[in-house]
Amino acid sequence: MKKDTSQLRATALGILALLFWSSTIAFSRSLVEALGILTASSYVFLLGGSIACVYTVVAPDGLRRLARLPAAYLIGCGGLFVAYMVSLYVAIGLASTRQQALKVGLVNYLWPGLTLAFAVPILRRRARSLLIVGLIIGFLGIFLATVQRADYSLSVLVENIEVNCHSYLLALAAAVMWALYSNLSRRWAGQAESGAVSIFLLVSGLILTGVRTCFPEEPRWTWQSMSELLYMAIFPGALAYTFWDEAMRKGRIVLVASMSYFTPLLSTIIGTAYLGVSIGWNLWAGCVLVVIGAAICKASVEEGARE
Known about the structure:
Elements: H1 2-21, H2 24-35, H3 37-58, H4 62-67, H5 71-94, H6 98-108, H7 111-123, E1 125-127, H8 130-146, H9 154-163, H10 165-189, H11 197-214, H12 223-250, H13 253-259, H14 263-275, H15 281-300, E2 301-305
Antiparallel strand pairs: 1-2
């Protein structure tokens, strides 16, 4: 009974993390425009990591639990976490327009389907051939979202990606890294009492701060930017990543990952409203295809592992 309650709690926290993350693209883009890529991301992670570390220190046996975490989890998942954070923020910041930032965000939201796909070899989940179909549909959604005109050919896809290839490639790399992180945290620290997200966030902030000293920016501090910074640090930052880490280690990973296929749609809705941009039908259609692809992936992967 205690195990079932713990699993239910971890699963609920994972779903709550998804709701917080749905606002990440919109708020991050607005914050990056005001402060700069490195300044915005470094402050978000420094503040979020500091808050999470304080909680770790004051929590009962917090430091003891942290010291007992496996080295593979701390090094492997920690490296993936930091690389993911840096890649995603730089991808959002390098987008030439707010509309393109939403498309970059959609590329990043391939991670739900990839998480389920990687669960097969890493967590030994059972899967049917429909998994491949779901992945293909998801990538078709990205293709449709990036098309600027009614010419759906491979050459047009390449042309659109080349306009800002660094943003798209970084977003795709971020999707792969987060999918790997989600599965490996379960494999390496599934039985641990707590995770190390607080440390991962703080290290991300420290690394970005070091890079920022080499490439100084001129931030424009306003009440809006300070409010966005505080929101990003607390909710999509400290809380969401802590919640997700526990969900991946102790929750129903297939259920939580499958619920995440609603995130691209919710993120696009929040992005268009908060950033005040209008987008074409192709981005909405691409978003729907990404959702459908992730849903098919979920239907093709079973919760239990192979014996």
